[in-house]
TrEMBL record:
Its cofactor is Mg(2+). Keywords: Hydrolase, Magnesium, Metal-binding. This is Inositol-1-monophosphatase. Mg(2+) 2 binds at I90. It is an enzyme of class 3 (hydrolase). PROSITE patterns: IMP_1, IMP_2. One of its GO terms (molecular function) is metal ion binding. It catalyses: a myo-inositol phosphate + H2O = myo-inositol + phosphate. It comes from Cryobacterium roopkundense. One of its GO terms (biological process) is signal transduction. Belongs to the inositol monophosphatase superfamily. The keyword Coiled coil does not apply. Mg(2+) 1 binds at E72, D88, D91, D221. InterPro entries: IMPase, Inositol_monoP_metal-BS, Inositol_monophosphatase-like, Inositol_monophosphatase_CS.
Amino acid sequence: MTRAVSTDLLSLARTIALEAGALAFRRRAEGVNIAASKSSPEDVVTDADREVETLIRARLADARPHDGFYGEESEATAGSSGLTWVVDPIDGTVNYLYGIPHYAVSIAVVAGDPAPSSWTALAGAVINPALGELYTAAAGEGSFLNDRPLKVKTGVPLSLALAGTGFGYEAPRRLWQAAVVQGLIGEVRDIRRMGAAALDLCAVATGRLDVYYERGLQPWDHAAGALVAAEAGAKVGAFGADSEGKDLLIAAAPDLYLAFEPLLAGLFARLARE
Ligand code: IPD
């Protein structure tokens, strides 16, 4: 993929993210309606999630009719170009529902099989419309918050690291995730659960978090944010698939990653024995 192509893809992702973010923001101001629940009663989809995804899908179909589409709220379609758009219309749906100004539209384009273990992310845009913050990245071209280039903070020792994580929607998964947090809280500066994985990954890029980890994410939760973090110099890795085959994702500056990964692996091993 040439540099010009990645830049064109990024420009499209950026333009659509701005329009979709504005729509999500407007709908939030008008009042949010729950359309249905998904994996559990807590896992909801709003009318706005569906409307925003429909808009993104239509814009992509117009501009890139031969690409595939893989989004949270509608059926995936394969394309013939080898590229797939991986889209979360509203990441941080529960924040959105409660009017907490921490949610995002996330749009990435990947080459190859649209599976996180094998795809190559080419470009991504993540927008928090409530704060007017647009994160963008293209492979090999760095990442940006609005116009500001991003670079991860290095030299943070584990004991002073601010860690972010998230919880799934099903009770057994959450209980396991809470047990991991219990093992971790004494080893790091503190832990945040901010509620939007795409923004957590971007927070590693800006230095608002030192490390982010979560097990059980969906591909659309992390496709764009992981590229923003990686292009800012973070190491983004995965290990230890759970029973559903979803890996644990970790993003941190490379030096912190080296210290953090064995700590988590040790916690997982201990929990598995208990
Ligand atoms: C959720 C958020 C949350 C993370 C969950 C995700 P959604 O996505 O990213 O922070 O902890 O694992 O499912 O449902 O708001 O799109």
